[in-house]
Amino acid sequence: MSDARGAAIPETGGIANPPVIILIEPQLGDNIGKAARAMLNCGLVDLRLVRPRDGWPNERATANAAGADIVIDNAKVFERDEDAVADLNRVYVTTARTRDAIKPVFTPKGLAPELRSVVAKGEKVGVLFGPERTGVRNEHIAMADAVVTVPLNPGFTSLNLAQAVLLIGYEWWQAGVDVPDYQMLMNDTFPATKEDLERLFVHLEHELYESGFYRVEAKRPNMARNIRNIFNRSNLTHQEVQTLRGMIVAMRGGKYKPED
Q: Taking every annotated instance into account, which residue ranges of this chain make up the domain tRNA/rRNA methyltransferase SpoU type (predicted)?
């Protein structure tokens, strides 16, 4: 979705025409609202409803959207399936059963780069979800370019509407962001330097020696190495090192100055 000048709106993460979400014969307004909420979580704002059972607009949908007003307010309603996809270049249908159709089959993770690639070419794409009770029908699969199947427990693959939308949307969004799988939040501090750690080790080892911790002198070097390994595995921050040194001094009944 874009503004009047064709520029991408902020909610979509900078993408001018993100995938359209098409819900065929959705039932409860609650489910539509929750699906809309899942959409906006993932930068999807174009919602299309085909023959919603309880009519439209729907107060329950608005309430359950939890602030995803841009999705609800701009949702389009269609009577015919064909009209809901008429302006799209490609359509992907979600189903756990291909019904023997000869179609490419994507997982949500595999679909995401495909969608990104197609959208980058300026094409409009949509992901179609069937009725909650029955899923998509043969005619929906026939109008699609490919099928999307979520690899779940073979003994129980049932998803509610919002869950299904979120799975697709999540992978779409993740394919466009550069967020490390793991990071350490430092807040106002920073990682301890090797000098910080060395001063901690020297301080600790001295106090351990003075307290009689090293009862067998021959074992002292190995024990000291093991203690260093414990702290080296901890990814300590500068502030944590300062706190540990303060603790050591406090246990010895002294006063600690950070510059010591």
A: 20-170
CA 123 to mean position of chain CA atoms: 25
DSSP SS3 for 233:
coil
Structural domains in the chain plus CATH codes: 10-174 (3.40.1280.10), 194-251 (no CATH)
Q: Helix axis angle, 194-211 relative to 220-232, nearest 10°?
A: 140
pLDDT tens digit sequence for 82-123: 999 999 999 999 998 766 778 999 999 999 999 999 999 999
What pLDDT score does 254 carry? 61
Cβ atoms within 10 Å of 72's Cβ, excluding its own: 24
Are the beta carbons of 64 and 41 closer than 8 angstroms?
no
Q: How many CA atoms lie within 13 A of 38 on its CB side?
A: 20
Q: What are phi and psi of 127, to 5 degrees?
A: -115, 125
Condensed to tens digits (0 to 9), the pLDDT of residues 27-71 reads 999 999 999 999 999 999 999 999 999 999 999 999 999 999 999
Determine the Cα–Cα distance for residues 30 and 126; give it in Å rounded to an integer: 22
DSSP 7: P
Position 177: which residue type? V
Amino acid at position 46, single letter: D
pTM, full prediction: 0.77
The sign of the CA dihedral 75, 78, 84, 86 is negative
- Residue appearing with tokens 């427990």: 153
